[in-house]
Amino acid sequence: MLENNLKETLLNVFKNDYHLKINPELIGFQQTRAEFEGDLTLVVFPFLKLIKKNPAMLADELGSALMAQNPLIKSYNVIKGFLNLSIQDDYWLKWLADNLQRTGYEQAVLDKSTAIVIEYSSPNTNKPLHLGHIRNNLLGWSVAEILKANGGKVIKVNLVNDRGIHICKSMLAWQKFGEGKTPESTGIKGDKLVGEMYVAFDKAYKSEQKVLITKGYSPEDAAKNAPLIQEAQLMLRQWENGEQETRELWETMNNWVYSGFDVTYTRLGIDFDKIYYESETYLLGKQIVMEGLAKSVFFKKNDGSVWCDLSAEGLDEKLLLRADGTSVYMTQDIGTAQLRYDDYKAEKLIYVVGNEQNYHFDVLQKILLRLEKAWASGIEHLSYGMVELPEGKMKSREGTVVDADDLMDEMFQTAKKMSEELGKGADLPHDAAEQLYNDIGLAALKYYMLRVDPRKTMMFNPAESIDFNGNTGPFIQYTHARIKSVLRKAVDNQISWPNTVASIDLMPKEKAVITLLHTWNEILRQAAINRSPALIANFLYELAKTYNQFYQDNPILRETDSDRRCLRLQISDLTARMLKYAGGLLGIQMPEKM
Asked: pLDDT per position in the chain (594 positions), as tens?
């Protein structure tokens, strides 16, 4: 790797010329900014405490020494405390040829002997997947793929929250208001039908509260004493006690939801290696809590509820079991974490969950460490910001969410309309054109969601996400299709581009594409370290933009110099391969034609 080669030379310079043993971590190269001459830039400020010299003077001395000792360096220049290095063109030509021989662009950075379990999606079975779930699924799936591309042994898991008071609300509403409806009898997707029941419960529950308030109840007492919520709580107790009729209805309605989820996951391109169900993990969680109680790790209050006191660690008391013996989310998360460790002996348990649950996962880790689960130190909450809409926040119980299926339908229709207006896909058969519009719509959605740093709250505007000229998925797809068209024409004209090329001076925009492609390994590594698909998305956009600038200014098939034409086809070929590979880590399909 070029950076390692230069770092080794620089360490020798410090040792021989300055009699210093420098920490290699202090040496960092970055791509030279476009407005300056050079390929890589070394920042010398970290060395000033050790070498008392003017920054520009030190940079000049280091540049001169590097150039004398490393034949890869063609020239250098100094801008204040920044040393800009230009690399010999032959290095870039060889690197390009070598990478055209690769079949993939992954790397072995992570240790494959230890597993990384990453949980994402984690839906409740009382409603269909919505816009917030889309960000969660896309983020979790993409981070898993990025970790795998860095050599990691990754297990993608889903925890379905298939039990609890929220599930009982939908079940009770179906009994009271469902009129025997089923997905088959109505033609409604199962998850949507159950979601409608959840909304119906909330509407009736609020009406009951209003009646109680008119009778003199406080809002808090009305919420507790409304007949519907008391019936739902009774149903939860019946479920936990294994009451047959309740269990049968629960299984039936959950199966409706699972079938609906599968359709959405498949369309979105999301998969899992294993699915856990809260109904199968909460009992282990209760068992572990009772063991902790016996060891005085936890304590019981007078009403019989079980708690963990974390006040000594700057938190507060956390409920683990209710007075009636029913469990809470924390209970099942304790059981699920133990199961995952038992299943995979994972060194990392990554939870992709919104930032409103930061406290929950802080508490989960502390409780497990209290229980002397050494592996709990590997728990990591990949906390992401919420998705907001121009018109405000979504509310599931009020039925104001953006349904995932409806959104994908809208993206498809918008992609189709805009593509047809621009004449894209016009020469394709009907089925191929429909597939193209679907790929464009999903690329627009995925890229828009993933280009934002995960930790930031984001505003989603579907109309902005489909643009063939902006910072969007369709722009990147169009660049890939444009390159593939050039390569097809080259083949049709019997023009080849072997993986070797004569020594040739690189033109600025040829070199710009190659040097950007050269940053891929570090981009991929940083994306894994930071759990950030946004770094991949930004790389894709910069690559597409830089290639298009090269394409506009440099003829390819019309180039009369055979060596330069070969070089430009090589650049085009590797760019297309990288767009496809890196796009794949975001779940984006790259069409051959548009």
From this structure: 899 999 999 999 999 999 999 888 889 899 899 899 999 999 999 998 888 889 999 999 999 999 999 999 999 999 988 999 999 999 999 999 999 999 899 999 999 889 999 999 999 999 999 998 999 999 999 999 999 999 999 999 999 999 889 999 999 999 999 999 999 999 999 999 999 999 999 999 999 999 999 999 999 999 999 999 999 999 999 998 999 999 999 999 999 999 999 999 999 999 999 999 999 998 999 999 999 999 999 999 999 999 999 999 989 999 999 998 888 889 999 999 999 999 999 999 999 999 999 999 999 999 999 999 999 999 999 999 988 877 655 444 444 578 999 999 999 999 999 899 888 888 889 999 999 999 999 999 999 999 999 999 988 887 788 888 889 999 999 999 999 999 999 999 999 999 877 789 999 999 999 999 999 999 999 999 999 999 999 999 999 999 999 999 999 999 999 999 999 999 999 999 999 999 999 999 999 999
d(CA 460, CA 449): 8
C-alpha torsion sign, points 235, 241, 247, 251:
positive
Tokens 């808090």 — which residue? Answer: 220
3-state helix, strand, coil in the chain (%, to 5): 60, 10, 30
Contact 278, 330 (CB under 8 A): no
**Which helix or strand (DSSP H or E) is residue 118 part of?**
strand 115-119
- The structure's pTM equals 0.92
Question: DSSP states of 288-306 as a string?
Answer: HHHHHHHTTSSEE-TTS-E
Read off the amino acid at residue 143.
V
404 exposure class (CB count in 10 Å sphere: 0-12, 13-18, 19+): buried
What domains sit in the chain, N to C, each tagged with a CATH number?
2-87 (3.30.1360.70), 120-388 (3.40.50.620), 406-584 (1.10.730.10)
Other C-beta atoms lying within 10 Å of the C-beta of residue 167: 26
Task: Tell me which amino acid residue 279 is.
Answer: S
d(CA 345, CA 57): 53
Contact 160, 250 (CB under 8 A): no
User: Which residues have a Cβ under 8 Å from the Cβ of 6 and sit 6 or more positions away?
Assistant: 29, 40, 42, 66, 70, 72, 73, 85
Phi, psi of 154 (to 5 degrees): -115, 135
Residue type, 300: K
CB 87 within 8 A of CB 73: yes
Please tell me the total number of residues recorded for the chain in this structure.
594
Alpha helix locations (H) across 357-429?
A: 358-370, 404-422
